[in-house]
Amino acid sequence: MANLSSILKHNQSFVEEKKYEFYETTKFPEKKLVILTCMDTRLLELLHHAMGLKNGDAKIIKNAGAVVSHPFGSVMRSILVAVYELQAEEVCIIGHHECGMASLNASAIFEKATQRGVKAECLELLANAGIDLNSWMTGFDSVEDSVKYSVKMVRNHPLMPEDVPVHGLVIDPKTGGLEVVEDGYSQKNVSLSGNTG
């Protein structure tokens, strides 16, 4: 739990020694690319190296599972901002094998939450307010299907220009190997159907 003090100590020398100069770039992605990927720790550097990206090449959005779960949530908003304000011309949704969101069990999460002090009444209050907590905290069975669903969500969003390719890929978190599950160059807008959970 003493991470913050060591981070700040490192940061002080990082700034004093001007190590930041190696990472200088602009706010606009050089490769005109926005990527949504998982927050998995194995992808922190692996994804960039596996794709041949350097600092400043792409806008990177991360969340649990690389999932666009709501058409008007913060992930979709970030993708649209990247396209309209930050000159991104392509979108990549990149999930990965062995994802923690695969078969995530909502009941187990809520049990852990109550063990950590969240009151059962709080969960009941949210459920009574019409929030489907089980659906919200449930993962997916297939990373490929999840990526395809998110690609369709982005591709068919009413505010997404039709000329922006939306690609879907899955990365191997051990080798960095990439598999294409949706080629945005060959796809036309397809109506959104089905849900991954």
Characterization of this structure:
With 197 residues, this protein is α/β, with parallel strands linked by helices. It folds into 2 domains: 26-103 and 141-182, Carbonic anhydrase (Beta-carbonic Anhydrase, Chain A, 3-Layer(aba) Sandwich); 105-138, no CATH class. The protein has 7 helices and 5 strands. It has helices at 3-16, 43-51, 74-85, 106-115, 120-128, 133-136, 143-155; strands spanning 33-38, 58-63, 90-96, 166-171, 178-182.
Q: State the helix count.
A: 7
Shape: globular
Between the first and last Cα atoms, what is the distance in angstroms? 34 Å
- Main sheet, how many strands, which sense, barrel? 5 strands, mixed
**Architecture of the largest domain in CATH?**
3-Layer(aba) Sandwich
CATH homologous superfamily designation of the largest domain: Carbonic anhydrase
Which percent band covers the strand fraction? 15-25%
CATH class of the largest domain: Alpha Beta
Tell me, rounded to a whole number, the average pLDDT: 93
Strand order of the largest sheet: 2-1-3-4-5
Tell me the radius of gyration.
Answer: 19 Å
Residue runs with pLDDT of under 50 for 5 or more positions: 189-197
Give the structural class: alpha/beta
CATH-defined fold name of the largest domain = Beta-carbonic Anhydrase, Chain A
The number of domains is: 2
**SSE arrangement, N to C:** HEHEHEHHHHEE
Please state the oligomeric state of the protein chains shown: single chain
Count the E strands. Answer: 5
Task: Please bin the fraction of helical residues.
Answer: 25-40%
